[in-house]
Amino acid sequence: MPSQPSEWPSATKPANRGNLDLRGLGGWLILAQISLWYALIGSVLYLSAGILPIFAGETWGRLTSPDSPMYDAMWSIIIPFEAIGNGVLIVLLSYVLLLMYRKKRLLVPMVITYFAAVLILSTAGFILAQYIPLTAGQGIGKSLSKLIGNMLTCLIWIPYFLKSVRVRSTFVN
Question: Which residues cross the membrane (predicted)?
Fold first, then answer.
């Protein structure tokens, strides 16, 4: 019978990773940083080029005027919801990136909050869009795949930020 080790690894002891230094913004955190910056840039572009122009031009009137053939009362809910939601995500994501580069302990709960907020807002937006007959059938595949992508993002990154040795040893301030 093989002899058992004199001491079993425990959750309080760091795992033996050889000579690897598992501190700093390396490893999988590089991919996390790229993803977060990509999300920030995408959100800013979507808000500034996709949503805000609706309020400035004639589009808002066409969508919210009962005399218009494109009218639906839900537009006056969905468009501000998208604008406010994206604004909140931009602020939250900017704060997450600031915490990341300052290596603050608060990063983990805030990045989880960010991923959960993205999932909640995208789910709510998807559901609300189904109430507008003009958009209910259009782009459902794209919207649904985006929603599934957000779910997968949560399923991957939230456990990573909770369990990673690198995250635990990097964000300590």
Answer: 27-55, 75-99, 111-132, 144-162
pLDDT tens string, the chain, 173 residues long: the values are 555 555 544 444 555 555 466 776 777 889 999 999 999 999 999 999 999 999 987 899 888 999 988 888 899 999 999 999 999 999 999 999 999 999 999 999 999 999 999 999 999 988 888 888 877 666 677 788 899 999 999 999 999 999 999 899 988 88
Its sign, for the CA torsion 67, 73, 74, 78, is positive
Calculate ∠ Cα 172-167-20, nearest 5°.
Answer: 105
Note the pTM of the prediction, 2 decimals.
Answer: 0.81
DSSP 86: H
Do the domain assignments include residue 2? no
Total count of domains within the chain = 1
Q: Is residue 21 part of a domain?
A: no
